Amino acid sequence: MASNVNPTVRRRRLGLELRRLRELKGMTAEEVAERLLVSQSKISRLENGRRSISQRDVRDLCGVYEVDDHRIVDSLMQMAKDSRQQGWWHAFGDIPYSVYIGLETDAASLRVYEPQVVPGLLQTRPYAESLIAGALPESGSADIEKRVNVRMRRQDRVHAEELPLRLWAVVDEAALHRIVGGKALMREQLEYLIELSRLPHVTVQVLPFEMGAHPGINGQYAILEFPDATDSSVVYIEGVTSDLYLEKANDVHKYTVMYEHLRAQALNADQSRSFIENIAKQYTMTP
């Protein structure tokens, strides 16, 4: 379940409001930066919610924008205070993709395309351990365990009794054939995937090899949608050293259309379960 105060989402909402006030004032980010003697990049990071914002920052910006309504200023100051609180993931220390976790924690729905592996929210612990260890060969056991524990904690959204995450996953056939941790472990993982696919709020579709080229050929991505209408959808693309977050309406629309094409080309939910079951049986029959 999402916490009552999600710092990542608070930063996004606050950043959007500050951008709106700047635009109402008719100022550019560069002009604001010059007035406050800060870099333009700082203003941009504050507005896109990627940087922690202090109450002093809010006070200074409201001064530049000549916001006279004390109720608005007080509300923004409170949002700044809330945005500096720590989410559950901070208890695990430094997490490279903490921004994404904050968004996922508050999302109402998640649509994901995975070309290589089983989606993280649908992984068993042994599969996650073997996958992370293989993907990060230079990481120590403590770091791997931390990442696995975070991944397991993220899955609480899928198993929540109230307001669970609506998850739609399109998985390439390659992910089902990639033997992570051995055949017995893969059989267990695929059986677990089938089990979760039967949940009313989880849909799993397989994109078989025979479909050939498709809109997701360039790689993994996810689309997050939020319960609050004021929070725009976000497209998340995971990178090796940095991640990409797309929030412009045109970008989100393009990826949404791509996803609809992927869903249309993939096997339906029942066909996908049968497809996964057949592959799981192969792991049972072979030594």
The strand order across the widest sheet is 3-2-1-4-5-6
Mean pLDDT metric = 89
Overall strand count: 6
Low-confidence stretches: none
Characterization of this structure:
With 287 residues, the chain is of the alpha/beta class. It has helices spanning 7-25, 29-36, 40-47, 55-64, 70-83, 98-106, 125-135, 141-154, 156-159, 173-177, 183-197, 249-265, 269-285, and strands at residues 109-114, 166-172, 202-207, 221-225, 234-237, 244-246.
A few lines on this structure:
This protein has 287 residues and is an alpha/beta fold. The chain has helices at residues 7-25, 29-36, 40-47, 55-64, 70-83, 98-106, 125-135, 141-154, 156-159, 173-177, 183-197, 249-265, 269-285, and strands at 109-114, 166-172, 202-207, 221-225, 234-237, 244-246. Residues 18-72 form the HTH cro/C1-type domain.
List the helices and strands and how they pair.
Blueprint: H1 7-25, H2 29-36, H3 40-47, H4 55-64, H5 70-83, H6 98-106, E1 109-114, H7 125-135, H8 141-154, H9 156-159, E2 166-172, H10 173-177, H11 183-197, E3 202-207, E4 221-225, E5 234-237, E6 244-246, H12 249-265, H13 269-285
Parallel strand pairs: 1-2, 2-3
Antiparallel strand pairs: 1-4, 4-5, 5-6
